Amino acid sequence: MTCIQKPDSIQKRIIELEQELIDLRRDFHMYPELGFQEFRTAEKIENYLQNLGYETIRMAKTGVVTILDSGRPGPVLMLRADMDALPITEINEVDYKSRNEGVMHACGHDAHMAMLLVAARVLKENKTSLNGKIKFVFQPNEEIAGAIHMIEEGVLENPKVDAVMGIHVWTPIDSGKIAITPGPVMGGLDVFKITIHGKGGHTGLPEDAIDPIIAAANLIQTSQIIQTREISNLKAIVIMFGKIKGGTKSNIIPDKVELEGSIRFLFPGGPDSKEKPTQRFIRIAEQVCATHRCRCDINITHENIPLINHKEMTALARETAIEIFPSEKEIIDNQTIASEDFSEFSEKVPGVFIFLGAGNEAIGTNLSHHHPKFDIDETTLPKGVEMFVRGTLHFFEKANRLSFLKQK
Length: 408
Hints:
The chain is α/β, with parallel strands linked by helices. It folds into two domains: 280 residues, 3-Layer(aba) Sandwich (Aminopeptidase); 117 residues, Alpha-Beta Plaits (2-Layer Sandwich), CATH 3.30.70. 32% of the residues lie in helices and 25% in strands. The strands form four sheets. The protein has an eight-stranded mixed sheet with strand order 1-2-4-3-5-16-6-15. Strands 10-12-8-13 form a four-stranded antiparallel sheet, with helices on one face.
């Protein structure tokens, strides 16, 4: 039977490592790298783990994977952190401001790596409390669906992963709170690019041209009926246009307009679903363009599927949080239409994705993710480490009650 250390001993060790945790996060923050370019980041992760006695391997170019084997039979739990930064110029004035111009950790991935590295240290120190294996995964390019590349290279195999856990710092949630929610928690994401082709001409003679701009305007408006008239209002969906490009001068009707945007949905939304949001969008785009005598080229990139938390893994995580947070009032529910490619892992094995509150208005860390002044409340990071550590210990202790493991 697995024996779990008393909470105070684990908490004490994590508190001892708090400065190391913050230093790691700030170092990652100072040297951010874009997806599949995380070369320095990967090397720092490898050095830290190897100094602890771990053996590491590379996957998906810059991803880092290592395994902690207890030496005793049991299930395999995967813990995952993402590595990549964003193409944003940081405007914070802090000592750990990005040194890489035009690149910034504006989503908290720097914190995720730091928390998982320190968790790897603490779990290795508690190896005798484990029955099974832990696979630590540092994944590149989360912002553009990097998880699927790791899956294709076998990250869920050898040894075969039975369950997965991830944690995301989340500034829309106040520091001191944590969100652990069963079912759908983050949206699916399809990204579209549309080129509407018309016929150029003079704005004083519009009858001799075919205007793609008015077609584009109509498409932007008409596509909104999908979530208000074609799909139940109880099912979250957002269609957003983020880029419009067309024309060169005020008195010239252009021959084409380019549109880019995203379709997000908090339910299974693929071609086999009842809702089919993206297929509906394609239909409207083609028919609106035809109405305006235009034609369109449509390119859809399926980036992420919805992230759905497994019921039993969520219950296990909530039980863990009760030991860590002072009151059950701090353990809340949270759903967002934003997307996360952790969904690729949790679609294949039972998983739970946790939101760690890091928003603190008093110190200015309540800004949105992807904002050029994004920052986090670092005092919350030890709680994230403890969730990784104690959640892992609970997983192995209570493995015999998890139905998906009994079915193996």
